[in-house]
Design goal:
The protein has 474 residues and is an all-alpha fold. The protein folds into 2 domains: 241 residues, MFS general substrate transporter like domains (Growth Hormone, Chain: A, Up-down Bundle), CATH 1.20.1250; 195 residues, MFS general substrate transporter like domains (Growth Hormone, Chain: A), CATH 1.20.1250. It is 70% helix and 0% strand. It is built from 17 helices and no strands. The longest helix has 33 residues.
């Protein structure tokens, strides 16, 4: 049957079979049996995959954000200096940046599914290790373990999203982003007031947050059976035929370098292709203007987010209640924004307008914070910043699996994460240095304003989806 005569659902089914591989090799009797689908057109296996993507995202942040609310109690109990306490808090961000590219390399060597599994195991082991008796050694060792797990798992998850949901990358990636934000909010909200008293202190909280990661690891490993996995072997671009668009926006032309392939693509690679895939260099991706624009946009977003969260309370009016309201506006808007993006049927991941609007909202919020130092204006400015940051972050998470070939999803994600965490590490430091020089807490937002301007410029440079350039230049 000519491909043009296939319905949209048939084309998506063909793509999913090509990505999974295993289902296409089932017995003839099994192939004749249609998979049971609900009103959304998804099978039970699809829903399980979406739950797992959310759950993995949740664990990539829950252990991290459960620590700040109990930090002071840990510091006092272990007789730590403020420098030691600050180092424990800074190690994860540093390792997230340093471990992203090694995580991408591991995805090519052992497969993205295995890398995410290793990451979950390290998260569970690291969180549990922090509860061991001793002064600061278990705390530091456990922090390094779980941070390394998060660092290598972050590039692997987008590759799995692309393999499991080749016809619905946007929504699946957005659900992963919702998991990240849900993990942040829930762990930060319940650890100190509820979990710590229930388990008898801060050591017990580390064990509690190790459990979701351990359980998720078990389900993640079982889910590998019968599902696609962009393992260590991938075909080169010349061996594949890109065809369709996401099922949620069928009818649009497929940009060059996208991730969907025909069911007729050969599922097996030669040993030469295996070696070429594993040794395909990552740094040539930096020759692509698109990659540089994405890195600039993500680094600006990370700089604004972490610097604003660090210094917004010090520069807010209204004391502790005012600062708490501003922080809630900055961070609390992320979940409803992400839920809205999960439910939308419009294609936004490769939309220049989407990023321009998000970056403009961020910039307006920063400018409003600087120019309108009034009690009534600060929550509005924080809300604008939070709306822009959440929108941009969600779109950028879904960008690599939406545009890159399977071999390049993890490396592209790793490059973006590396610069993002470099910016998140330097942002609070630079803003603090500005305060030290000027003796004005409001001045902390001057470098934040520069980062917001970089976001706007980078968003204007992102090409329309019809003009998407190749990620790898010839």
């Amino acid at each position: 049957m000519p491909e043009s005569s296939l319905s949209s659902a048939d084309r998506v089914e063909a793509i999913q079979q090509a990505a999974g591989g295993r289902e296409a090799q089932a017995s003839p009797e099994a192939q004749l049996q249609p998979r049971r689908k609900d009103r959304t057109g998804r099978t039970g296996k699809d829903w399980l995959g979406l739950v797992l993507v959310f759950w993995v995202g949740f664990n990539l942040r829950a252990v991290l954000l459960a620590f700040p609310p109990i930090l002071e109690g840990v510091r006092i109990s272990l007789h730590m200096s403020y420098s030691e306490a600050g180092l424990v808090s800074s190690i994860p961000l540093l390792l997230f940046g340093l471990g992203a590219l090694p995580g991408a390399w591991l995805c090519r060597r052992i497969g993205a599914h295995g890398v995410v599994a290793i990451g979950l195991a390290l998260i569970a082991a690291g969180s549990a290790a922090r509860a061991l008796p001793g002064r600061i050694t278990p705390l530091f060792v456990g922090t390094i373990l779980f941070a390394a797990g998060i660092a290598i798992a972050q590039p692997g998850l987008p590759s799995m999203v692309q393999a499991w949901f080749p016809g619905n990358v946007q929504q699946a990636s957005t659900i992963g982003a919702l998991g990240l934000m849900g993990g942040e909010m829930i762990s930060a909200s319940v650890t100190a007031p509820f979990i710590a008293p229930l388990v008898g202190g801060w050591r017990g909280t580390f064990l509690v947050w190790a459990l979701p990661a351990a359980i998720c690891l078990a389900f993640w490993w079982v889910a590998r059976d019968g599902r696609g996995d962009p393992g260590p072997v991938q075909q080169t671009a010349s061996q594949k035929q890109p065809v369709t668009q996401d099922s949620s926006h069928a009818g649009h032309s497929q940009p060059q370098g996208s991730r969907a392939y025909t069911a007729s693509s050969d599922a097996t690679d030669t040993s030469a292709t295996r070696r070429a895939a594993m040794h395909r260099p990552v740094l040539p991706l930096l020759r692509s203007p698109l990659v540089l624009w994405l890195m600039a946009l993500f680094s600006g977003q990370s700089f604004v987010y972490y610097a604003a969260n660090s210094w917004l309370p010090a520069s807010a009016h209204g004391g502790i209640p005012g600062a708490s309201l501003d922080l809630f506006a900055l961070n609390g808007i992320a979940v409803p924004i992400t839920i809205t993006l999960v439910l939308t049927r419009r294609h936004f991941v490769r939309s220049r307008t989407f990023y321009v609007m998000g970056c403009l909202a961020t910039a307006l919020g920063v400018v409003g914070w600087l120019l309108l130092p009034y009690l009534w204006a600060e929550p509005v400015a924080a809300l604008l910043m939070g709306t822009g940051i959440a929108s941009t972050f969600t779109g950028l998470l879904a960008y690599p699996p939406s545009v890159a070939e399977p071999d390049d999803v993890a490396p592209l994600s790793a490059l973006i994460w590396t610069v993002a965490y470099a910016a998140s590490f330097t942002g609070p430091l630079l803003s603090g240095a500005i305060i030290q020089l000027t003796h004005n807490t409001r001045a902390a937002f001057f470098p934040i304003a520069v980062a917001a301007a970089i976001m706007v410029i980078a968003s204007l440079a992102i090409p329309h989806k019809a003009d998407l350039p190749k990620l790898r230049q010839a």
